[in-house]
Write a structure and sequence with these properties.
The chain has 78 residues and is mainly alpha-helical. It contains 3 helices and no strands. This is UPF0291 protein QK289_13795. Keywords: Cytoplasm. It comes from Exiguobacterium antarcticum.
């Protein structure tokens, strides 16, 4: 995950862009920080999804086949 300083900088640049135009260097920095944030977010979300198991009221596993397949592929990588 990104550090708190990086998250603060993302917010600082976003707020500044609402008031005045960003310089080319700031725009490039903002794009780089946003890319890093999205990569971290997607990785975290994927990890959460790989740990999910869905069961119905009777206790039967009803996890979608596509998710089961992705979880199996992930286990085989390790």
């Amino acid at each position: 995950m990104l550090s708190q300083e990086q998250l603060d900088r993302i917010n600082e640049l976003a707020n500044k862009s609402k008031v005045e135009p960003l310089t080319d260097a700031e725009t490039a920095e903002q794009k780089e920080l946003r890319t890093a944030y999205l990569k971290a977010f997607r990785g975290s979300f994927k990890n959460q999804m790989m740990g999910i198991k869905i069961v119905d009221e009777e206790g039967t596993d009803v996890t979608p086949g596509k998710l089961k397949q992705a979880q199996e592929e992930e286990r085989n990588k390790q």
